[in-house]
Amino acid sequence: MKEKTLLPVAVIGVLVLWLATVGLWAVDAQKMDERSGDRLPGEQVEAIEWKLVTTWPKGLPGLGSAPENFARRVGEMSNGRLTVRVYGAGEVVPPFEVFDAVAQGVAEMGHGAAYYWKGKIPASVFYTAVPFGMTAQEMNGWLHYGGGLELWRELYAPFGVRPFAGGSTGVQMAGWFNRELKSAADLDGLKMRIPGLAGEVFAASGGTAVRLAGGEIYTSMQTGVIDAVEWVGPYNDRTLGLMQVAEYYYYPGWHEPGAMLEFTVNQDAFDQLPQDLQAIVEGAARATNQDMLDEFTARNNQSLTTLLTEHSTKLRPLPDDVLDVLYINAVSALERLKADDPMAQKIAASYEDFLEGVRRYHEISERAYLNARDRVLPPISFTDQ
Ligand code: CA
């Protein structure tokens, strides 16, 4: 009996010693690595470089800083193993070819807004904004805890593209108009830059919707090609100089209540990354998504104050009958979209179900709180009104 057990005991002993030695070496190596912050001597690490193409003019604050922030985060988190180079609109591909560039592998990544691809993928509108739909907080809840992201992946999978939320602006402004809107009749004949499902709604309400990239808006307004434009909100509209080309600034952003942007990743390029770099891409995208909302929340009011005090901007609420007409046409546009496209129907079911639930809870939380706060704090006034 004794002889039979001796050998296994000896083997186990050697194994334990070997494991302990390897373990100690590994711990020691980890310490060395942490201390120096560099790679271990002799360690072969492949440096990967990705191109990220965007729909924004290069260097545009706000929307355009999101991909730059993402690239910086990925570089820092991966200790330089993955470098993401950001290209502005037109540097590698024109703004509205960003999705195709990522699908075809011309670039590994893109940053833009999903509703720009509405012509190719009708249901993409759910991933930027739905008129009278969810706010940023609600969208993030739906995406990450309500099944929205899984459906988005399903929507883009046939194109070999993997989507991630890429920032949110919060509730946008209804836009800049070169004339006052007194009633819904004033929408007749108005040419407006307004993309996505809202463009269809605007057209059905009497206007003409035009799709223009950010870099084209200022000149189109200045030369009278368009009469009105929605872009984002005070912070980013000011960076485009829109207060110089229109006087009337309308709210609220009925059409983009929680406008979300997207990171698109070429699925093959993503699959080729080691697991830790995949997690870094995902984590950096998630951080950037929240960071943009934080930045816009902080800066919109500062910019609005500047617009109202240092420029001739006139702030106006959309008249109720304008909102009513837009709502009626938004319902029809959504019904048409669902009838024509099975994926739109599937995503809409999830979106609408989540909206119904979250709206119910927000009635007694977000709204109830804002009402309670308004009861006790001094009333808010704006200088031009
Ligand atoms: Ca917008």
Give an overview in words.
50% of the residues lie in helices and 13% in strands. It has 385 residues and is an alpha/beta fold. It has a domain at 48-168 and 259-296: D-Maltodextrin-Binding Protein, domain 2. Strands 7-6-8-5-9-11 form a six-stranded mixed sheet. A five-stranded mixed sheet has the order 2-1-3-10-4. Helix 2 (65-77) packs antiparallel against helix 10, helix 5 (148-156) runs antiparallel to helix 12 (342-364) and helix 6 crosses helix 11 (320-340). The chain starts with a helix and ends in a 9-residue tail after the last helix. The model is unreliable at 1-7 and 9-37 (pLDDT under 50). Calcium ion is lined by residues 172, 230-232, 256, 259.
CATH-defined architecture of the domain at 48-168 and 259-296: 3-Layer(aba) Sandwich
What characteristic shape results from the CA principal axes?
A: globular
The CATH C-level name of the domain at 48-168 and 259-296 is: Alpha Beta
Strand-pairing-aware structural class: alpha/beta
**DSSP strand count:** 11
Strand arrangement across the biggest beta sheet: 7-6-8-5-9-11
As a percent range, the share of strand residues is 5-15%
* Helix proportion: 40-55%
Distance between the termini: 98 Å
**Which regions have little confidence, pLDDT < 50, spanning 5+ residues?**
1-7, 9-37
Q: Would you tell me the overall average pLDDT?
A: 90
Q: Work out the helix count.
A: 13
**Small ligands present:** calcium ion
N-to-C order of helices and strands: HEHEHEHHEEEHEHEHEEHHEHHH
Q: What is the fold-level CATH name, i.e. the topology of the domain at 48-168 and 259-296?
A: D-Maltodextrin-Binding Protein, domain 2
If you compute it from the alpha carbons, what radius of gyration comes out, rounded to the nearest whole angstrom?
Answer: 26 Å
Largest sheet descriptor:
6 strands, mixed
> Superfamily at the CATH H level of the domain at 48-168 and 259-296?
Bacterial extracellular solute-binding protein, family 7
Q: What is the oligomeric state here?
A: single chain
